[in-house]
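Subject: sequence -> structure tokens, single chain

Hey, anyone have a minute? Need the predicted structure for the following. Not urgent.
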Amino acid sequence: MTTHDSSVVPNPRQEVVAPPEQTGTVRTDHPETRTTATSATGPGDTGGTGIAAAGSRRLPWYAIEAVASVGTAVAFLAWSRTVDVDPLDRKGQVSGLAALQFRFAVVAIVLVTALVLAHRLLDPARRGRAVTVGCAVIAGLTTGLVAGGIDVALRGTEWGLWAGGGDYAWILDWIGRMTRGETVPNHYPPAIFWLIRGWAKVSDQSHAFAIKEIQLVGTALFGPAAYLAWRLVLRPVWALGIGVVAMLPFIEPVKPYPQITLVMLIPVLVRYLQTVRRTAGLDLRRTAGLGLAYGTGLGLLFLLYSGWFVWCAAGVAAAFLLLAPWRRAWAKVLLLATSTLAALLVVSWVHLRGLLAGTGGTADNYFYFDTDTEPAYVAMWRNDRPADAGPAWPPLGELGGVGLFTIGLVVGLGLALWFGWRRTVVVTVGLCAVSAWLLRMWLASEQWETLTVRLYPRTTMVLLYCLLILTGFGLLFGLTALRERLAARPDPAATPRTGVPFGIICIPLLLLLASAGSAMTDQYMPDSRRNSTGYFAWIAHTKWYPHGGTCSAYGRLHDCGRSDRSTSPAAGTPAPTSPTPVPADASQPAPAPSGTG
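Reply:
Had a minute. Here:
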């Protein structure tokens, strides 16, 4: 298929090249040149769209993107610490939210102005670099706003969200045993233990208080992590528009490390399988080197949180078998797979051996709100915090009980399959979703007989993330095909249209990100209701410090929550904030499919 082919449906073996980063405009008159099916990246590959495909010449700019994105997120978090309100008073909460929105707007105006000026004053090459940095800044600003809101919610307390309770209770217990040189189970991903111990030592504070900074920084890094991971596959505009937008429902300030792993794992797997698909064009040395690199990266993600690997493993294996060029390069395919597995095993063995042991896995007999939810519903989840969920859950939809959001996801999935059913990203993400769906329904169908949950509600996140990503790519494929058709039939009488500055195009996106950030932050503002998300911050203010005989400064203004007996001195030892009798992710022997959730 050539650039002038008028077909609306692109060749399914041909990947679409995202809008080029070498321009600072969104073209409305003609599309960019596409790669052909016989390009060096191989059939079905998205080569040429992301950092990994661009080669070493792009690595310095990738580093600049990383610095810009992470720096913006951390800087906005630091700026939020100057917001002076009482977070336990609703008027103070609203004032804090508004202060953060004002600061977000100021940064957004400066950024949009800079991008518009770059469009007018710079040549195309420098203009494209400005767009690249601008996308990275927006990604960091998105979750810097959310982290700043959590910092406002925790203003004046040394505790982090949950105040060392719930899952953090046994995490802190295990860290204490590790510090004393005692043996602890190794079937839970150990990276969080290392992070808490390391930061507590560097900052000279207790392990329980060190959790607060890890929560804040982890939340701030959500946006940069998602954006930079998708940059391995996509160019900046689409890494922002697809990767960062799809990440929004998964920002989890209480325990940020599991969801950060998820939003990074999927694009890494897509990029890996793109490499698998073009193995025939690689020499043996590069094949082995790439396998070691991917295995090391996947191993590090496994140490951060391994549960997502369980849900996606079957889908990834199926995608590997389907996409690998067995006839042309079976030896190289096996070399790539072997080197990847070897590196993965070496890096993750400290944790993997615990999962493979007879005492690995999890019993997980904790039934809660989400386990009572209709199992085919994946649009939202409430965990065990169903406050304000309404009398009917899931919410009754308009079409056979299905809501418009789910219908939109189905339409997006249809677009992705129509325009790219043989493309690497569609095959990989789609099969990951199929794998998670089958495990979800199998485990949920057995909960009556076994009286165990086995973490199947965690598949909700995998399924929703995969559907959001496929919807984004469906729109990308559809828009590309539409531009190609319009370009193939030019109107001689039409007036050429000029490109729209990227700074103008990103205004509605910034509004969406600002609104989402405020909504998410508001959920975590202190709330004394035990079944609300805000209770995580409330107990951080009203739980008494182990060393001072009192609670936080703002907690003292509200009598340290004495009406809440779980944090009152009269109650003795504070009660846990959720009935989690054993580690929610790993503790007891369990059937192999549940893994670590």
